[in-house]
Automatic annotation (TrEMBL), chain A:
It is a single-pass type I membrane protein. Pfam families: TRAP_alpha (PF03896). Residues 35-64, 223-275 are annotated as: Disordered. Residues 35-62 have a biased composition (Acidic residues). This is Translocon-associated protein subunit alpha. It comes from Brachionus plicatilis.
UniProtKB/TrEMBL annotation, chain B:
Pfam families: TRAP_beta. Keywords: Endoplasmic reticulum, Glycoprotein, Membrane, Signal, Transmembrane, Transmembrane helix. It comes from Brachionus plicatilis. Residues 1-18 form the signal peptide. The chain crosses the membrane at residues 159-177. Belongs to the TRAP-beta family. One of its GO terms (cellular component) is endoplasmic reticulum membrane. Heterotetramer of TRAP-alpha, TRAP-beta, TRAP-delta and TRAP-gamma. This is Translocon-associated protein subunit beta. InterPro entries: TRAP_beta. It comes from the Eukaryota. Its main location: endoplasmic reticulum. It is a single-pass type I membrane protein. TRAP proteins are part of a complex whose function is to bind calcium to the ER membrane and thereby regulate the retention of ER resident proteins.
Length: 275, 194
């Protein structure tokens, strides 16, 4: 009986942990606020936290329409939570109109927010105007793109993408399509101009040093045997004569034989002399 | 013993519950359709490549997918390659398909590149056909071919003309110099032979 109770206790504890495991895991998920899925449906009608953030931003626009569902997909880069700095980010936004009446999709705007306080804007991206009518029971896709600044690399930002639309009565709605923390990563470039020219510069310095070293060495070695040419030069200058050894022999010959007449005259004279 | 049975039941229930939680909210197929121009310049008479990409972000395959683009009427565009209608029997979840057509605009001027229409069945059970619109590019300017050539063509004929026009000013002095040089050398040789 004692053994039974022990095993019973074990089973009980094990099953209790299993029973509450999903609850705990989900709670952790909520805290971490990371979503790795490529595509997430965002139904604001069921998501009061988004509505709260909307109120925080102080926009006097209404909340989303319950008939509209939006979803998104990052096309470039494929995993949406790591955006390379200075590169174009493209995302597709799906707009599903479940109502019978039409909606006018006005545009999309996106902004980087401070991750600890989403009401604090760091950078607003240019808003796109679409002005496209989506009839009842239809869906449409919209493309939005932006480039995070290169100065933002290796930091985290809250990225908020808002889709604004109107119904037939002119009532305005806003759907927060994406509202998550993204990290800006440094782009991995195959060819970096800066490092390339750094290496070129280093190579140039090395070559210069080599040249200087060679010159130094040659001057050091010359000192030993430089006595002869020095004395030779001194001799030439002291005797105050033109040292013909410096001039190649054929030059000396041509100089001595150089004609005193102009080439034109020579041309006329030459055939005569031949005769 | 009853307690053990209860616990096992609870365990099973827990297992089933977690399974349902894991199942995606997005049960039906969901298509996002992008329509892009791959050219940098849109020029009359030259090829214009249009790429359609259909992403299925749902968790079930999209069936009988038909893409139709009536944006390029015959009086304004000519299909150089591909068709304005494309069909796929099935697009699996978390995958995408591409369709590329090449058209050439016949007339220059402003043109509104609107969206293509995609119809599909969101799931195998669905009987209602879902209609979706692709992204659109809006008004684009189709350049005149002569304008485009003036700016970006290789200008081969112009360079040949330039060479022909510029050659006299280089060649005439060269021949003058060459003739005088040859004369000088001839006289020098004769002198030497003497």
């Amino acid at each position: 009986m004692k053994i039974f109770s022990l095993t019973f206790l074990l089973i009980a504890s094990f099953s209790f942990t299993l029973l509450f495991a999903p609850v705990i895991v989900r709670a952790e998920d909520a805290v971490e606020d990371d979503a790795e899925e490529d595509a997430v449906i965002n139904e604001e009608a069921e998501n009061p936290s988004v509505a709260e953030s909307e109120e925080e931003t102080g926009e006097d626009l209404d909340l989303s329409s319950p008939d509209v569902k939006t979803n998104f997909l990052f096309v470039e880069p494929a995993e949406g939570t790591d955006l390379p700095a200075g590169r174009l980010v493209k995302l597709l936004i799906g707009f599903h109109n479940n109502a019978t009446s039409a909606f006018l999709v006005e545009g999309i705007d996106a902004s980087f927010r401070y991750p600890q306080d989403f009401s604090y804007h760091i950078q607003n991206f240019s808003s796109f105007r679409y002005n496209k009518v989506v009839d009842g029971d239809r869906e449409a896709t919209f493309e939005y793109m932006f480039t995070p600044s290169e100065t933002f690399s290796a930091r985290q930002f809250g990225l908020t993408v808002n889709l604004r639309y109107k119904n037939g009565e002119g009532r305005e709605f806003v759907n927060t399509v994406f509202n998550e923390t993204v990290s800006i990563t440094e782009p991995d470039e195959g060819f970096d101009g800066e490092t390339f020219f750094l290496y070129v510069f280093l190579a140039a310095i090395l070559a210069l040093l080599g040249l200087l070293g060679k010159q130094m060495l040659s001057s050091v070695t010359k000192k030993g045997r430089s006595s002869k040419p020095k004395s030779y030069a001194a001799q030439a200058t002291s005797s105050n004569e033109v040292d013909m050894d410096w001039i190649p022999k054929h030059h000396v010959e041509t100089q001595s034989n150089s004609p005193k007449t102009s080439p034109r005259q020579r041309g006329r004279q030459a055939p005569k002399s031949k005769e | 013993m009853k307690c053990v049975i209860f616990l096992i039941c609870a365990l099973l229930a827990n297992f089933v519950y977690s399974e349902t939680v894991v199942a995606d909210e997005l049960e039906d197929a969901k298509l996002l359709i992008a329509k892009n121009v791959l050219n940098n310049y849109i020029v009359e008479g030259l090829n214009l490549t249009i790429k359609y990409t259909i992403h299925n972000i749902g968790s079930s395959p999209a069936l009988n997918v038909k893409l139709q683009d009536e944006n390029f009427p015959a009086e304004y565009f000519e299909y150089a390659s591909g068709f304005n209608v494309a069909q796929w029997g099935r697009i699996p979840p978390k995958s995408n398909v591409d369709h590329v057509v090449v058209v050439s605009p016949k007339l220059p001027g402003m043109f509104n590149l609107t969206s293509a229409v995609v119809t599909y069945l969101p799931s195998e059970k669905a009987s209602k056909v879902q209609t979706g619109y692709s992204t659109e590019l809006g008004e684009v300017y189709i350049q005149k071919l002569s304008d485009y050539n003036r700016r970006y063509a290789s200008q081969t004929i112009n360079w040949i003309l330039f060479i022909i026009i510029a050659s006299p000013s280089i060649l005439i002095p060269y021949f003058l110099w060459n003739s005088s040089k040859s004369k000088y050398q001839k006289s020098k040789k004769l002198k030497k032979s003497n």
